[in-house]
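Q&A FORM
Asked by: J.P.
Topic: structure of Retinoic acid early transcript 1E-like

PROVIDED:
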Amino acid sequence: LLKLQGGMSPAHTTGHLLLILLLIEAGKTLDAHSLCLDLTVKSQSRPGQPWCQVQGSVDTKPFLRYDSASNKVKPLGFLGKEVLPPCSNALVHPCTSASMDGQLFSLTP
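REPLIED BY: S.T.
REPLY: Here is the structure written out as tokens.
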């Protein structure tokens, strides 16, 4: 993880390791979650093929998928069904707008 470099004392390195451990533990006690949106845009897609795909994940677990060919948001797993509204048409086209029609959803599993 950390490598001793010229002039860096073992005490200095130990201090860095303790700081890293404290930060990791702080994240655990706050029940922090990570949200990731993977957006793929194909500049030269053929007609009928998706030119834009989006996959959303919380804590590396996928909860939604969208592609421009179907123009639909597909919930994935339990979290996707909990997070997305019953009518996914309430979502604005994610490849043309970052808006979700002013709606906020809890992404906590």
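FOLLOW-UP: Residues 10-29 form the longest helix (20 residues).
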